[in-house]
């Protein structure tokens, strides 16, 4: 008799535990704001693309949930882009993100190309009426997170095993694991903002997408140092030893890069070796002014040109690095992500607010039209300024002749300037 009572009690206890676990799961969803696990736009990826899309859509009254694999600290710890086109600045301002950008961003009226001791000023503002703004991607992302917090939008960090389901149907959904529990998020549309290594692009069957790629036989070794910038404007240097780049984040924080072989280990380079090699790639009068110091960040970025077409598959849309990668020589990566967001946000608001699907039907072609021109510019800047292993003396001369022509032709400099400041949206 007694054992039966104990058995009955243990069954009741097990049922109670299961019930509380279910409530806890629903509450955990509530805490993540999944609001009954349904939203209008599911955004995969909480980098610049995903956060800016969430910002603009929520401002228009469209509900989103951002699913991000990494922690916020990890996302904010990435040191990446530094140069914003005027279209990017305008889009960020329109999204309510202009305050700190306008206070702390540096407007640059030009940039420099150099070839040995030949210095070629590219007077962007004088040639096109517009310049660029130096403001690190880290700061853009920080501003986006703060703005998203203020709006109370839903960003779920630490998601794993994201799977996009029914993208070609009328009721797509996203499955993901959070703290060991499997979740489902129903939505009207999915935005793949999860970068080059994300799941979104790979959700599109291989026979439904066409990929275009050029992998460069070198990478960039980048150093961030608490030193005053050597040049008041970004400097791209061609030299017989390879490419070098001098940039900055502010008057006390500089960002430098040198071209290195593919697979270079950043830890194999001491700071002194880095400063020595950079100096050898700059004009002498610039190298003589270089203020060196300890690196606060040192990393190697591979260089590739990549586009995946189309950017749409049913109710799934690809945005930013999930769809394309440019070599950073043209400072286009982040800026292209922003123009993708500009186009897609406009299209989704139209579709969800007015039922007008013209924008989403035209998103892929419209974005690709701008993407390909930025792809060409980034490829041309990379080809012009980098030494290719095994290049013939003829090819090296072609690069130098291009730079020499730029130094003498305002027309050639205007063409470069028009692309560097960013082509119209
Ligand atoms: P991102 O890659 O920035 O963000 C994608 C987000 O999705 C990440 O936070 C990732 O954690 C998340 N994610 C990935 N898979 C996921 C999954 N399965 N589930 C959920 N979340 C997932 N551009 C320049 O203009 N100048 C530069 O100097 C420059 N340097 C760069 C250096 C490096 C090493 C890299 C990788 C890129 C660099 N770029 C540069 C380009 C860079 O700035 C990108 O263009 C920009 O980050 C694009 O932003 P997103 O499209 O948001 O992609
Ligand atoms: C940077 O400041 O990190 C930077 C600037 C210009 C580029 C690439 C990177 O083209």
From TrEMBL:
Q: What is the lineage of its organism?
A: Bacteria, Pseudomonadati, Pseudomonadota, Alphaproteobacteria, Rhodobacterales
Give an example GO molecular function. Answer: FAD binding
Source species, domain of life: Bacteria
Protein name, as recorded: p-hydroxybenzoate hydroxylase
EC class, as a word, reads oxidoreductase
Q: State its Enzyme Commission number(s).
A: 1.14.13.2
What SUPFAM superfamilies does UniProt report for this protein, alphabetically?
FAD-linked reductases, C-terminal domain, FAD/NAD(P)-binding domain
Indicate the segments forming the FAD-binding domain, all copies.
Answer: 38-378
Q: Matching InterPro entries, A to Z?
A: FAD-bd, FAD/NAD-bd_sf, HB_mOase, RIFMO-like
Query: Per the UniProt entry, what species is this protein from, by scientific name?
Result: Candidatus Rhodobacter oscarellae
């Amino acid at each position: 008799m007694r054992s039966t009572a104990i058995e009955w009690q243990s069954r009741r206890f097990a049922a109670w535990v299961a019930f509380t676990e279910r409530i806890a799961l629903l509450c955990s969803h509530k805490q993540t704001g999944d609001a009954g696990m349904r939203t209008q736009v599911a955004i995969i990826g909480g980098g610049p693309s995903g956060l800016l899309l969430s910002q603009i859509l929520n401002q228009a009254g469209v509900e989103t949930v951002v699913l991000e694999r990494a922690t916020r600290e990890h996302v904010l710890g990435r040191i990446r882009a530094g140069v914003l086109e005027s279209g990017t600045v305008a889009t960020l301002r329109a999204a309510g993100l202009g305050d700190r950008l306008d206070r702390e961003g540096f407007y640059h009226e030009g940039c420099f190309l150099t070839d040995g001791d030949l210095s070629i000023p590219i007077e962007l503002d004088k040639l096109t009426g517009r310049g660029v703004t130096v403001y690190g991607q880290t700061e853009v992302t920080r501003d986006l997170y703060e703005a998203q917090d203020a709006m109370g939008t839903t960003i779920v960090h630490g998601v794993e095993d994201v799977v996009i389901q029914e993208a070609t149907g009328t009721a797509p959904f996203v499955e993901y694991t959070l703290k060991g529990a499997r979740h489902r998020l129903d939505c009207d549309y999915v935005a793949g903002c999860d970068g080059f290594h994300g799941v979104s692009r790979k959700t599109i069957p291989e026979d439904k997408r066409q990929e275009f790629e050029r992998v460069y036989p070198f990478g960039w070794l980048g150093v961030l140092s608490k030193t005053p910038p050597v040049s008041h404007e970004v400097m791209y240097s061609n030299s017989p030893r390879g490419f070098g780049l001098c940039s900055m984040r502010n008057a006390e924080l500089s960002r430098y890069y040198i071209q290195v072989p593919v697979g270079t280990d950043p830890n194999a380079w001491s700071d002194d070796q880095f400063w020595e090699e950079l100096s050898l790639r700059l004009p002498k009068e610039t190298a003589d002014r270089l203020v060196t110091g300890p690196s606060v960040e040192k990393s190697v970025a591979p260089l590739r040109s990549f586009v995946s077409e189309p950017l749409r598959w049913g109710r799934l849309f690809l945005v930013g690095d999930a769809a394309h990668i440019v070599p950073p020589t043209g400072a286009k990566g982040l800026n292209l992500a922003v123009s993708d967001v500009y186009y897609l946000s406009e299209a989704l608001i139209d579709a969800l607010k007015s039922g007008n699907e013209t924008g989403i039907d035209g998103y892929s072609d419209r974005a690709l039209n701008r993407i390909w021109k930025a792809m060409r510019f980034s490829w041309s800047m990379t080809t012009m300024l980098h030494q290719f292993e095994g290049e013939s003396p003829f090819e090296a001369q072609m690069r130098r002749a291009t730079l020499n022509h730029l130094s003498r032709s305002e027309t050639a400099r205007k063409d470069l300037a028009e692309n560097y400041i960013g082509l119209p949206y």
